[in-house]
């Protein structure tokens, strides 16, 4: 009769070592997403008069830049929270509750999660944009304060909601409806007034949206990364000129 082999000696499993990636990876992926938006912008003729089919580039840029920001906000937040010691379950619960976060929500979330960076997150940076004074006037360069930019980001998210739900096309003069939540700004507050209750997105509006979200994302993430002992390289972020 064959001998029965001895039972194996019980051993203690060695837990897997989890390496949290660098925050720079989230920045690199975000900037890569923005290159598509930048290429869309370069297709626009920038000539006087109605740009014909090129008018569709403005809503495309708004949709793509806000989508890229949403991905970045979730990606960066998950890595930053992991570096602060939160478990995967806690991170999933927090990030999973986000739905189309605008810049102010991202700033507030980072401020609450990293109180040591609160002063930098409150100060922010000024952001160069374009503004319109009338339906006939040309777009003029302007600068938003940080607080103004945060508020404008909320209005631009309302623009995104209009576009994604088919309430407007974004490539012509249209009526833009009020927000579902009374506490949110109206979409038309960041659009070009065309008279008779109509507003237009325009390519300069799309550039403004792209700048607010991308420059704002850089300012917020730089403040948090400095608190976590990392320095971010944003040299590949498109300028949207």
What does this structure look like?
- The protein is mainly alpha-helical.
- The chain has one domain.
- The chain contains 7 helices and 4 strands, in the order H-H-H-H-H-E-E-H-E-E-H.
- The chain has helices spanning 24-42, 57-83, 88-95, 103-113, 118-123, 146-164, 202-227; strands at 127-131, 140-144, 192-195, 198-200.
- The strands form 2 sheets. The protein has a two-stranded antiparallel ribbon. A two-stranded antiparallel sheet has the order 3-4.
- A hairpin with an 8-residue loop joins strand 1 and strand 2.
- Helix 2 (57-83) runs antiparallel to helix 3 (88-95), helix 2 (57-83) runs parallel beside helix 4 and helix 2 packs across helix 6.
- The protein is globular.
- The termini are far apart.
**How many domains in all?**
1
State the oligomer. Answer: single chain
Structural class: mainly alpha
The overall strand count is 4
The radius of gyration is 23 Å
Strand content: 5-15%
**Uncertain residue ranges:** 7-16
- Overall geometry: globular
Mean of pLDDT? 90
* Helix amount: 40-55%
What about the largest sheet? Answer: 2 strands, antiparallel
Compute the separation of the termini in Å.
85 Å
Total of DSSP H or I helical runs spanning 4+ residues: 7
Which sequence of strands runs across the widest sheet?
1-2
- Output the helix-strand order: HHHHHEEHEEH
